[in-house]
Write a structure and sequence with these properties.
The complex is a heterodimer of chains A (365) and B (342).
Chain A lengths: L1 H20 L12 H4 L44 H9 L24 E2 L12 E2 L74 E3 L7 H4 L5 E4 L4 H5 L3 H6 L8 E2 L17 E3 L13 H4 L11 E2 L13 H4 L30 H5 L8
Parallel strand pairs in A: 1-2, 4-7, 5-6
Antiparallel strand pairs in A: 3-4
Chain B lengths: L10 H6 L7 H21 L4 E7 L1 E3 L2 E2 L5 E5 L4 E6 L4 E5 L5 E6 L1 E3 L5 E3 L2 E6 L5 E5 L5 E4 L5 E5 L12 E6 L5 E5 L5 E5 L5 E6 L10 E6 L5 E5 L6 E4 L5 E5 L12 E6 L5 E5 L4 E5 L5 E6 L11 E6 L4 E6 L4 E7 L2 H6 L1
Antiparallel strand pairs in B: 1-28, 2-3, 4-5, 5-6, 6-7, 8-9, 10-11, 11-12, 12-13, 14-15, 15-16, 16-17, 18-19, 19-20, 20-21, 22-23, 23-24, 24-25, 26-27, 27-28
Classes of the chains: A mainly alpha (365), B mainly beta (342).
Chain lengths: 365, 342
């Protein structure tokens, strides 16, 4: 009997551990089925032999149709090339985040406005560009996607324990000897009576409403904030999110004192910090907390907080403070947030990079 | 009546039989497999449509780009295509030739005029165009030349937060139906061309969230939706919003779906539903029973590359829009038996 119970326990653990290990938004459990994206025999519809000897679904048209589904087959038994497959649901649909082109929903997304090579909608260099083979700016060693940048370079299609199913090994991440990247978030907790999810300061990302009921609720700018967990500096030298970005954009930014930022060799700031640099904490004409909290300001760039308070003296900028991760209409996906007016994907009433800088800096008048 | 279930003759079966089977067991097993497969195949292999023509763009230099919405105007025999990627609406005549186009600009959250992304449209008997644009929260009402007449906002009680009209359809008595993408979808009724005169709440008791991906209304005011998140992906609602019929799981199997992306109903009550991932259009009767599938991925007439929407004249013509194929095809709905005999 004990042996039986032991086996049952092992079995239960075997079942439960994978469930616990794979979290993630939407791309898991009953929301998608394998055959949505994969095909066992490169048959788009799994048709059988027709009367004329061809295979596939018999349309009845002269000449029939391409038996096993047009161009292909595609790697990993996929129905189509990765980006096209993803864009089937993630372009122009009301029920899934629209990642391509300008904002196509009435709420302001945290991401969105990806470019696509030759799509003509937005010029390149206003964010990430699907299909590009250019080297990632700041990558060290140089990294580019040989087959063109794909959604799966940054997101795990089967879900992950990271915020937005972010990949654990983007770009050079593994090659740089780093451990698996996890941008943790407070998913999975029970919501309160108002449907809001509890803040967990040990997690990197705080989603106020964690349910997937409506895009405007789940993916909106106002629904997401960023913590700065105490454990984070030791593991990620300041920001798990920034370390994810650094998988490709290695040398762009860093933490105070880090080799990417400066603070070595007697040099002052060489690059902008992404962690461990509270706004206004350093004197000498750097950032200004009073500037950050100017009276009358209603909009703030996203920053990390150790205490879960925004704006506050413990707020630290990171990649997402200045850049919209997929892109927008501004150069480099910069967020021209002036501090007043309606928040948009471009920022707010701000229209220049200077207005964005002056969120935290007072120099220049 | 074009409904049929077994167009494939059973003589076809014998062609697949193993004439030199090594053992009786193997032969009997093969018979079972072939019979099973043929039985399944016979259900879906109805030859029920015939390609007539296709429309490919507003001119040779401007092919359709990621088109997402299509409407057939039975008064003028014209096909309106929401050319989403090009930010325009293209009007085709009954031979698939473009006869008119106009860019659709919208106002964004800042109040700036920007290029729109037309998503779904309907045209009433007077030629007034009702256009849902992915970049606008309002329904744009346009004259036949594409000039904006008025904007209809989403009623404030629809979602309780910013949302937009997702799809629009023309119902009985020239009433325009526009559905919003709320957790519980709501349909705005527009009877005077300018204001919302009523709301229908679509109540699917099994739905935990709504991902409406296709929308149409029949002559009796019944509302049909496809829902990419529902446990049963096709819903038929009574005119008051009560669920009457739901079918089709998100699963493998011929009568199920991967991503239903558009639905239309003919006057017989039959439903034609595009599946954007499976590259087919499935034909169901009014009870939700599968009659046929047409398509398969490809660029030939009758094949599809990511069908994104469907339209019909309500009778004998079916229009299938292809997002990646950058075209729409006009297909004639045939009586299956007659088609074979011809």
């Amino acid at each position: 009997m004990k042996k039986m119970l032991g086996l049952l326990c092992i079995g239960a653990v075997a079942v439960l551990v994978p469930l616990a290990a794979v979290a993630g938004d939407y791309h898991r459990s009953a929301t998608l089925v394998c055959s949505d994206c994969h095909t066992m025999h490169f048959s788009q519809t799994h048709g059988y032999q027709n009367a004329d000897g061809s295979y596939g679904v018999d349309s009845g048209f002269p000449g029939g149709f391409t038996p096993l589904g047009g161009a292909g087959p595609h790697p990993y038994l996929l129905r189509n090339e990765v980006n096209e497959l993803c864009l089937t649901c993630h372009n122009g649909q009301t029920f899934a985040p629209d990642v391509l082109g300008p904002n196509t929903n009435s709420y302001v997304r945290m991401a969105g406005a990806l470019n696509e090579v030759s799509d003509g909608l937005l010029v390149q260099q206003t964010g990430h560009t699907l299909g590009t083979t250019d080297a990632a700016p700041g990558s060290n060693p140089s990294w580019s996607a040989a087959a063109g940048l794909e959604c799966t370079n940054c997101h795990y299609p089967h879900g992950s324990s990271s915020y937005r199913n972010l990949a654990g090994d983007p770009g050079n991440y593994s090659g740089l000897g780093r451990s698996y990247a996890v941008v943790s978030y407070n998913a999975g907790a029970a919501p309160n009576y108002a449907g809001l999810y509890p803040q967990d300061l040990t997690k990197d990302v705080y989603q106020h409403d964690g349910s997937l009921g409506q895009l405007a609720t789940h993916y909106a700018f106002a629904n997401v904030d960023f913590n700065e967990p105490a454990a984070t500096p030791a593991l990620y030298a300041g920001s798990a999110y920034a370390f994810f970005c650094k998988g490709c954009h290695t040398d762009f930014h860093g933490a105070q004192g880090g080799s990417e930022v400066g603070g070595t060799g007697g040099e002052a700031w060489l690059r902008h910090p992404n962690a461990v640099a509270d706004i206004g904490a350093l004197g000498g004409g750097h950032s200004s907390y009073s500037q950050y909290t100017t009276a009358g300001k209603t909009n703030y760039v996203k920053t990390m907080s150790e205490t879960g308070t925004w704006p506050a003296a413990d707020n630290t900028p990171s990649c997402f403070s200045c850049h919209k991760s997929h892109g927008n209409e501004n150069a480099f996906g910069l967020i021209y947030m002036k501090g007043t007016g309606t928040i948009t994907e471009q920022g707010d009433d701000g229209t220049t990079v200077k207005e964005m800088c002056r969120q935290c800096h007072s120099q220049g008048g | 009546m074009y409904r049929l279930r077994n167009t494939r003759s059973h003589s076809d079966i014998s062609l697949s039989w193993p004439r030199h089977a090594a053992s009786a067991f193997a032969a009997s097993l093969s018979v079972c497999i072939v019979l099973t497969a043929t039985s399944l195949h016979a259900q879906i292999a109805a030859e029920s449509v015939r390609p007539l023509y296709e429309g490919i763009g507003s001119d040779y230099g401007t092919p359709l780009s990621d088109p997402m919405g299509i409407f057939f105007d039975t008064v003028r025999n014209e096909c309106y295509v929401a050319d989403t990627g090009n930010g325009m609406v293209v009007v085709f005549n009954e031979n698939g030739m473009p006869v008119y186009r106009f860019l659709h600009d919208v106002f964004d959250a800042r109040g700036r005029q920007v290029h729109g992304e037309p998503r779904s449209l309907a045209v009433d008997a007077q030629g007034t165009i009702y256009l849902a644009d992915a970049r606008a929260t309002y329904l744009d009402v346009l004259d036949p030349r594409g000039r904006s007449i008025t904007h209809i906002d989403v009623p404030s009680d629809h979602c309780g937060q910013p949302e937009r009209f997702a799809f629009v359809a023309l119902g009985p008595d020239q009433t325009v139906y526009a559905v919003t993408a709320c957790k519980v979808p709501r349909v705005a009724l527009i009877r005077d061309g300018a204001t919302v005169s009523g709301t229908i709440v679509l109540r699917d008791p099994d739905a935990t969230r709504s991902c409406v991906s296709g929308f149409t209304v029949d002559g009796a005011g019944r509302i049909y939706t496809t829902d990419a998140c529902a446990s049963r992906m096709v819903q038929v609602y009574a005119p008051d919003g009560a669920l009457q019929l739901a079918f089709g799981k998100h699963d493998t199997g011929y009568d199920n779906f991967a991503f239903p992306a558009g639905i239309v109903v003919t006057k017989t009550g039959d439903m034609w539903i595009a599946d954007s991932i499976r590259q087919v259009v499935s034909h169901f009767d009014h009870e939700g029973k599968l009659i046929a599938m047409i398509g398969g991925k490809g660029s030939q007439p009758g094949s599809f590359q990511y069908p994104s929407a469907v339209a019909t004249d309500g009778d004998s013509r079916l229009f299938v829009l292809e997002r990646q194929g950058s075209r729409y095809q006009c297909l004639q709905i045939m009586d299956g038996v007659a088609a074979k005999e011809n």
